[in-house]
Amino acid sequence: MFMAKQSTPDPYEISKPDTLEIRREEYLDLYYFMVLNRRLDDRLGILYRQNHVVGGLYSSLGQEAISVGSAFATEDGDFLAPMIRDMGALLVRGVRPVDVVAQYCARMSGPTGGRDLNLHFGSVSNGLIAPISVVGALVPVMAGIALEMHLRRKPAVALTYVGDGATSTTDFHEGLNFAAVRRLPLVLIVENNGYAYSTPTARQANVTDLAIRAGGYGVHGEIQDGNNVLAMLDAVRRARKRCIEGNGPVLIEAKTFRRKGHAEHDDAGYVPKKLLREWERKDPIDAYRRYLIANKVLSTEEQLTEIETKIENELEDDVATALEAPFPEPDVGLEDVYA
Amino acid sequence: MQTTYLEAIRQAIWEEMERDESVYILGEDVGIYGGAFKVTKGMLDHFGENRVLDTPISESAIVGAAIGSALVGMRPIAEMQFIDFISCAFDQIVNFAAKCRYRWGAGVPIVVRGPCGGGVHGGPFHSQNVESYFFNVPGLKIVCPSTAYDAKGLMKAAIRDDDPVLYFEHKYLYRRIKDELPKEDFTVPIGKAKLRREGDDISIITYGAMVYKALDAAEEVAQDGIEVEVLDLRSLLPLDEEAILETAKKTSKIIVLHEATLTGGPGGEIVARIAEKAFDFLDGPIVRIAPPDTPVPYSPPLEEAFLPQVSDVVNKVRELASY
Amino acid sequence: MPDKRTAPKNRTATKKAKPTKPKAARSKHSQDETAASIDREAKVKMMHYMLLTRAIEDRIERKLYRQGRIVGGVYVGLGQEAISIGTAIHMQADDVVAPSHRDMGVFLMQGITPRRIIAQYMGRMTGLTAGRDGNMHMGDMNHNIIAFVSHLADNVPVAAGVALAFKQRGEKRVALCYHGEGATSRGDWHEGINLASVHKLPVVYFINNNAYAYSTPQNLQMAIENVADRALGYGIYGEVVDGNDIIAVYHAAKRAIDRARNGEGPSLVEFKTFRMTGHSAHDDAGYVPEQLFDDWRKKDPIVRYENLLLDEGVVTREDINKMQKEIDAVIDDAVEWAENEPLPAAEDLTKNVYYED
What we know:
Chain A is of the alpha/beta class. Helix content of chain A is 42%, strand content 10%.
């Protein structure tokens, strides 16, 4: 297990890992998806306050680099199981914002036709496995997906996420242990965002770095700066390679922070304001922007503004489309319990 | 003083913790946050972190630890943030807690409580009614209060009970139901049903949030001269068989109504007992009203179609009345 | 032995990448040095209980079971006796123990008589469960023993809960929990130990690593060599001990129990040993390479301990023979007594599901 170099000077700056090879258009794609994640998240917040969102809203504010960076590293044939704060991963893997909005607004046109809420949806044919509300439950399931890849010698990985809270669960333990014993191609990202609802990580576990548990399962573990999208991309690419070469699971602890409450209704009064401000300064998108400009990756800054404008326009349409869709017919609820 | 159902539960826990030092709470977000629904609000400040424990996400360990501490004299109240998560602790409940006394004479006085039920756009994992998973496990007790009075009285009874009690509080009722509560200490006996409305024509045997659907339906059909009797079971395990048979024999036409899905729901057991022991009194088939056999859906029109509505009850009452 | 925890503490931002392989402490005790620190009475007591444990289990498995005089299955801890004896000897009157199925020594040391144990195995009224449960699924809170359930590792959070109560009430009592290496794969193990470590509970976890979980060898159970290495992931103390050296067991257990009693939180103490039988009496363990049995037979904990005590002059060969004879007589008596005890009455079937006055 090794620790990646982390630096948090003021202002917060990210750097590109030496091991990362990345093309210019990939730089822009990363930016696109992170901004799309952020702006969609903002829109959902507005829709929530307008009472268009049905049920709870779970924001991914500040955690975009993890979902986008990691998902971007995956290839066709890989399976992902994003959690409810990994909207960025879904977007990278081709889920359309209009579908996310429709799902959140309980419409017929959403991916579950109104049967389940927030990001509880998936598509086996697109390599996306839907979560359930029991956190950690995805780990053994994805170990199973990895098992099939292993048995059929597929050059693919199963990638999933847990929060710091989910590392306390039975399923996390059993799933990771199983994958480790069988040396399965499982990439497990521990998104340590500091809080599980109101429970700070210090109350969740008796260690500061959850990645240290990797040794207890006999798997490779790393700590990464979760607010550095380039570091996340690099980490998952390397992890993928390790897995496909048969070295067993990889656990990546991505340090970040949950900048809103557990859900929209939670004002997170229990989080020290100072901590919040500290992490606001480490905003992953702002930092990435600064990196792109400083390292002259782009021709002009306008390229970024163009992306942002494009996203805004798209989202405007997507929201309108989603809201026009009808609610499901009652009979729909009786279908598809069985094949 | 008009007290909400939620506040009644909170009062019960608070008063029992004052009364008995061995009572304590453990669960996720119960301390500093006061609980996801604020049932345990203020308790950490008042009782201290020795008696209000914020745990990791570990339903199995929450219940397991509750069992262990109960074996050595504590009386824990273990919270499942949503009762849907009780499945994570299934093994500890059915294999450890339920069987200790029978196997080796050790009582396990724990309470496992949490919010159940739908009607709040919670979707499949925040809306379930889980009583059926445990109904068939001897050694457990199950209570489902519907009024603020019963919520308080049954919580006290559950805490004082020397056996494991699963306390299913209905989240839809939390702030919608109010009662005038007495100042003095009181309990409600576990295993005793209560008539909410008397009538000679049709019995509706029900519990939890469905009690109110039954009462509303009863009001409606009363205008047509059909008098409905509503029996609120309050406890599922043990069932108040005496009360069930009494109402069955009185009206001879029975509807069993519950929010757990139809197949394998507790309704089957109730119907079976009536058929076995009051067959000669029946003037019509025993009817069950329950959601269809699907997961609880999320979108409002689906959830509305899923949950039994007043109109569903009214229709069945009329049907049965004219049998 | 110094605490060789290698867990990195609160890490601030700039740290150079450094490969570390977490390893639990290894206890390295020279027999002579640490054997001397144990008083004679305790040593003799441990000898007695080792012999008693071995004898009673031998009688149950090799004789009674094969003669069809036992009801149901039989699980013994042959070759692992040092673990239960060397640990349980430290129990104080108020401590509570949650043993597993290979910890017969714990029951005996806590005062459960051979008579009642045999009665339990024979499903009699006077067994610890009045015939409601069989073999090692027994307990008695009057002796501070929590009956285990077949769902292994369930006793891990339960033991944490016992310790929680002690902490809440400010009592200087400790909870002890035993299980095998197989049980550590279960989620309850993880949740229980995590909870115990976050709340710094006075509980000690003794892991009997006897190399096989039924037919599953350790390398199919986990991808690590030592369960105790996981201690670092919980920020608690972990130690690996030769489970067939009762002196090492004695000292490791004492350290862990003292730590717990002093408020330093839980420990994972892993005893390396070997299961010298099948999983249960009906299992011939054909899947275990014969060589392993041969190797471990040479490390038999009782033979080693006998030799130690003989060398030290604590006992003579005559003393041991005398002990053995007395033990055989006690067991003969227990068997005879138990077989004459009544089976439970059918009318009693539904009693005590719930509390009865």
